[in-house]
Amino acid sequence: MKILKSLTNKNTKKIIAWTAVIIWMGLIFYLSSQPAGESWNLSYDMMKVTVQAVKVSQVLVSLVLAYVVGRFLKKKNKTIGLKELIGIAVIIGVLYVVSGILLRHFAPSDLHHFIRKNAHFFIYMALGFLLKYALKSSGITGLKAVGIGLIICVLYAFSDEFHQYFVPGRGALLSDVMIDSTGATIGIALQSLFSRITKPVWLKGNAETIKK
Fold it and tell me: Is residue 13 part of a domain?
């Protein structure tokens, strides 16, 4: 029964893994099918969301820093009075202002273009990760999985650019294929690293299940 249950779990994982890959490829195809105007508006909306997310993260980091400092002072048995609160507020305020200056200084001049190109990278990084996991769930591991995964991602990147060539206002760029392929390579590498990290935990849990 345990062997049958194990095989069922493996088949379920395999189906879920490949379904995720197909859905993600479908999402890429859908985004590539958008005419230039729609694609531009989508990425512009993403830019606005990204800017707001950065602002919110600045506030959250400031609050976390205040909490950490407060805990540190409490651990040292130091009373947090008005002076300490003002000091913490001033330091956090200065750091917030400095972080804003650094963001403006290091942010790309054309943030919209930067986000559009990075979207290529991250969406294919996710595809590489999902595809490597799907191959692993099918029993394909090691360098063979890396090679097959990379070939599929690169071929899909080429087909994606070819598809965009026929979409109104869009075009096919070899540079985008390179960005996509780099993202996929990183995604595959991350999944391989993730597998190495989680493998000892999985083996330990599996050994305990067999004992039971």
Answer: no
